[in-house]
Write a structure and sequence with these properties.
Rossmann fold; alpha+beta; Methionyl-tRNA Fmet Formyltransferase, Chain A, domain 2; 2 domains
Length: about 270
């Protein structure tokens, strides 16, 4: 719970570069930027819609890195929502900044098949690097004065990625296995999916689908084998990383051994 400098601010300080940290885009800050006579503005994970009078300062326009395949998943939590909804593809977009949420023209997209073994935390890093590479290519094109093509977003294809809330952490084990696994992977690293075991809250960090049917067992039932399997409404899911309240993070195998699990026991919705 301590305030920490962003990597950009730290880099600027370490290299004696000018930096600003305004609480809002006001007249004073706008004037300070105008005096620098900048060419282009790059925005990443800023979270505030920039006013047009500020965007207009930059003669070569303003551009944003957004971690989705626009126009899908505009908004605050694009990676998490893509995983939660089971999207087959995931990616990052470079777009022009306009005075509307993630609505500017598309300059470039890098997309690829989503790996179901990767969490949102994994994709934060992957797509940050991909987005930085795409942005550098775009800036290079601007510097070389190359023609830059853009694509207007199709408003009929727009979906919104609302901010993740803590209340979404609680799993419903009566849902289908694919939905539950997608939610577990989407909510890591925040707020981490939760269920209950032995009247204690349990965090599930990582899980995967299986083809083992669970329709003859109640949701929450467990199968204790070499690994820990948890029943949903249709299939068992394999629990790879788990932590009971007051305990340490364990693999499914370690959890079985440390807590001496019996097949008759169950997990429950919180």
């Amino acid at each position: 719970m301590k305030i920490k400098e962003s990597p950009i601010k730290k880099y600027a300080k370490d290299n004696q570069l000018l930096y600003f940290q305004p609480e809002k885009i006001d007249e004073k800050f706008t004037t300070s930027i105008k005096e620098l006579r900048p060419d282009v503005l790059i925005v990443a994970a800023y979270g505030i819609i920039l006013p047009k009078y500020f965007i207009d300062i930059f003669p070569k326009k303003a551009f944003n890195i957004h971690a989705s395949i626009l126009p899908k998943w505009r908004g605050a939590a694009p990676i998490q929502r893509a995983i939660m909804h089971g999207d087959d593809q995931i990616g990052v977009t470079i777009m022009e900044v306009v005075e509307k949420l993630d609505a500017g023209n598309i300059l470039s997209i890098n997309s690829f098949d989503r790996d179901p073994s990767k969490t949102s935390g994994d994709y934060f890093e992957i797509l940050a690097n991909d987005g930085a590479d795409l942005m550098m290519q775009h800036l290079n094109n601007i510097q070389l004065d190359l023609p830059i093509e853009s694509l207007v977003q199709d408003e009929e294809e727009v979906t919104y990625a609302k901010k993740i809330s803590k209340s979404e952490a609680y799993l419903n084990l009566e849902n289908k296995a694919a939905s539950i696994v997608n939610k577990i992977m989407a909510l890591n690293p925040f707020p981490i999916s939760r269920i209950s075991f032995r009247q204690k809250e349990v965090k599930i960090f990582h899980a995967e689908l299986t083809n083992i049917s669970s329709i003859d067992n109640q949701p929450g039932s467990i199968k204790v084998a070499e690994d820990l399997f948890l029943a949903t409404s249709d299939f068992y899911i394999k629990i790879n990383s788990i932590q009971i309240s007051g305990g340490q993070m364990l693999t499914g195998k370690q959890f079985i051994k440390n807590y001496q699990l019996k097949s008759a026991e169950k997990f429950f919705n919180v």
